[in-house]
């Protein structure tokens, strides 16, 4: 069975006032000094990200969604404890609801990014969820990328958790994906067809000397340059761990289904990157609150119908892995009660206070429930 690992990025906010604070380096030092450990967590890591107002955790590979969920919960507890050691609280939101001035982690690579990309680096404070699913070869990875690309907007819609940006409602369910679009290499990709074509494109991008390295290929999904995995990067960090596990289960099923299609010589859907960018924008704007675009025709359909088609597409793989019940329950929960963006807007509608949104996010993140 294919293994799955997850990276989650979080905001750090002041424990008293709820404003994002540059506490990552202090939190990591506190974790080291206090010997904070993850209990049953024996691998994975707690690390910094681009800005001092965020922390990142990543898990070990798992073949069971139950064990993945347990490790995700353990690492959230570790990160929350580390944050507390720096006078901060952990927040699972893909953007900051309140105003913030990001402060970059002092790192030579990040310094080079700031020098080259200016305000794009300075303002980049977003938190994603990246899912790594094991593959057997680069050729298989590229075959998978060509086939999962049409379903990535639906994953974004399910995970959307960034409706606010710099103190205002953006009108988007996931504004994070809009902010990421400012980088020179990001978003959907065209069909590659072969591993050689994928590598040729990567080499051409690097030879242009615009981005610094392979780590800056911010595609919605890519062949990982660090692990033998397909890395699905399109989704927001989820408030509810159960939503993270749902996304991970769907990603594994998509990879398994697509790898089988590739091995059988079945052609991938012939959908242009222009239409995929349109579908991604639409999912970013509305989440699961209205329509999504049909993955093959780009015509609007009810969001529940598109998500249902995604589940139907991967149902045999879900049954083989034993994840069909988990996915059915998770999809039903989000379609009935909403995603993180819905949750954040509901809190704001009741309180008229973005500070209260942040406070509730912090409590929900630490209490490990959405």
Structural class of the helices, strands and pairings? alpha+beta
What would you call the quaternary organization? single chain
| Measured distance between first and last alpha carbons | 30 Å
What share of residues are in beta strands? 15-25%
Level-2 CATH architecture: 2-Layer Sandwich
- Compute the number of helices: 14
**In the CATH scheme, what's the topology name?**
Creatine Kinase, Chain A, domain 2
> Helix share of residues?
40-55%
What's the count of strands?
Answer: 13
Shape from CA axes?
globular
Number of domains: 1
pLDDT averaged residue by residue: 95
What would you note in describing this structure?
- This protein is of the alpha+beta class.
- It is 48% helix and 15% strand.
- It is built from 14 helices and 13 strands.
- The strands form four sheets. Strands 1, 2, 3, 4, 5, 10 and 11 form a seven-stranded antiparallel sheet that branches. The protein has a two-stranded antiparallel sheet with strand order 6-7. Strands 8-9 form a two-stranded parallel ribbon.
- It is globular and about 55 Å long.
């Amino acid at each position: 069975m294919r293994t799955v690992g997850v990276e989650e990025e979080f905001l750090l906010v002041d424990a008293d006032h709820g404003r994002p604070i540059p506490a990552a380096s202090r939190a990591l030092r506190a974790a080291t000094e206090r010997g904070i450990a993850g209990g049953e967590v024996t691998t994975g890591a707690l690390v910094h990200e681009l800005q001092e107002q965020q922390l990142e955790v990543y898990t070990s590979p798992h073949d069971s969604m139950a064990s993945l969920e347990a490790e995700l919960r353990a690492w959230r507890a570790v990160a929350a404890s580390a944050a507390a050691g720096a006078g901060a609280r952990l927040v699972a939101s893909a953007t900051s609801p309140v105003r913030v001035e990001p402060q970059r982690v002092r790192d030579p690579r990040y310094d080079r990014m700031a020098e080259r990309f200016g305000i794009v680096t300075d303002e980049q404070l977003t938190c994603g969820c990246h899912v790594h699913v094991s593959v057997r070869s680069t050729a298989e990875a590229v075959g998978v990328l060509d086939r999962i690309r049409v379903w990535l907007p639906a994953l974004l819609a399910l995970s959307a958790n960034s409706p606010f940006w710099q103190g205002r409602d953006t009108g988007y369910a996931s504004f994070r994906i809009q902010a990421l679009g400012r980088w020179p290499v990001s978003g959907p990709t065209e069909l590659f067809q072969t591993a050689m074509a994928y590598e040729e494109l990567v080499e051409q991008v690097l030879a242009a000397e615009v981005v610094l390295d392979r780590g800056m290929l911010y595609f919605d999904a890519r062949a990982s340059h660090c692990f033998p995995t397909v890395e699905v990067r399109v989704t927001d960090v989820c408030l509810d761990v159960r939503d993270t596990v749902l996304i991970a289960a769907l990603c594994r099923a998509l990879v398994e289904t697509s790898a089988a299609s590739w091995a059988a010589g079945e052609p991938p859907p012939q959908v242009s990157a222009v239409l995929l960018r349109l579908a991604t924008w639409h999912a970013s704007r509305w989440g699961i609150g209205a329509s999504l675009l049909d993955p093959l025709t780009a015509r609007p359909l009810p969001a529940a119908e598109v998500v249902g088609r995604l589940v139907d597409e991967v149902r045999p793989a879900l049954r083989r892995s034993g994840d069909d019940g988990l996915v059915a329950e998770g999809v039903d929960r989000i379609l009935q009660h909403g995603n993180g963006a819905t949750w954040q807007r509901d809190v704001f509608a009741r309180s008229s206070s973005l500070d209260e949104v942040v406070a509730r996010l912090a409590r929900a993140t630490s209490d490990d429930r959405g």
